[in-house]
Amino acid sequence: MIEVANLTKNYGPYRAVDNLSFSVRKGEVVGFLGPNGAGKTTTMKIITGFMAASSGSVRVAGFDVFENPLEVKKKIGYLPETPPVYGEMTVESYLKFVAKLKGVEKERLHELVERALKKTDLGSVRTRLIQNLSKGYRQRIGISQALVSDPEVLILDEPTVGLDPRQVAEVRSLIKELAGQHTVLLSTHILPEVQASCQRIVIINKGKIVMQDAIESLSARMSNSGRVFLRVNQQVPTLVSSLKETRGVTALRQPAGADSFEIDTDGSKETAAALAAKVVNSGAGLFEMRQESFNLEDVFLKLTTSEENQSRGQA
């Protein structure tokens, strides 16, 4: 449904998107993640036809974004970072206006506006001026205008910004309902939202993809990894090398001069027990130990900060 191939976008000497390639299948909900400045919003603007690319290609529902922009826009409902609302209009009149702009047939106009109002729980404010509503309501109006033409593809950039916890839960539920009926590309900084709503994730950093995976596969891999936190009573010179050599250990970090260790492991109890035994046998004294499972936030930080650290090292 969405096919991005070798997409590149330059702003003068700065490359915001660097040879990006990924696809989103029909009916799939994909989380599009990355730190600020990673190129997410630029990519979404190119997919929706709001911005030209420097090179590469994008196809939506079989149409080339650059050769058939009007056909692509008919297929897409887009919620940008800042919802495109007109404060002097009422909620209902605004949605009717957007539906007409998107070419909705007259006989379906009322039905689709009512459906969009219901899905985003805006019925109670339908006759109010948008400028008199809170930021949370304006965000929901932005989601509603993306839905009002019943598009095949939804591009949502930070859809829960400004919403309270109850409204966030409602939007997550809505996104789940949309799966199968619509193809959804969802950008967000709220990682639990991705795990709750998406079937697959694409993580980018500095305009490049650093990981693509299904949520189920990622969850299975995370369940087979973990982190152990250790604190010792005193420093022993040979302890660091001994802990690193422990079977099942993949990485070890120790703040300079600190008496604590953060150790990435295979998540097994045997590895944790071996680490504890090495601390005790070294004479360092085991003061504290705890074991945690990896989560999506750990994966995200590891992928994005490791790239930054590598860049600094090369510089």
Strand order of the largest sheet: 6-7-8-3-9-10
CATH topology of the largest domain: Rossmann fold
Order of helices and strands: EEEHEEHEHHHEHEHEEHEHEEHEH
Could you say which structural class the secondary elements and strand pairing correspond to? alpha/beta
Instruction: Output the radius of gyration.
Output: 24 Å
How many separate structural domains?
2
Mean pLDDT level: 87
| Helix fraction by DSSP (H/I, runs of at least 4) | 25-40%
Looking at this structure, what is the CATH superfamily of the largest domain?
Answer: P-loop containing nucleotide triphosphate hydrolases
Largest sheet: 6 strands, mixed
- What fraction of the residues are assigned to beta strands by DSSP? 25-35%
Oligomer: single chain
Number of strands: 14
What is the topology?
Blueprint (H helix, E strand, L loop, with lengths): L1 E10 L2 E11 L4 E5 L6 H8 L7 E6 L2 E2 L4 H7 E4 L11 H11 L4 H14 L15 H13 L5 E5 L7 H14 L4 E5 L3 H7 L2 E6 L2 E7 H9 L2 E7 L6 H6 L4 E5 L6 E6 L3 H14 L3 E8 L2 H19 L1
Parallel strand pairs: 3-8, 3-9, 6-7, 7-8
Antiparallel strand pairs: 1-2, 1-4, 4-5, 9-10, 11-13, 11-14, 12-13
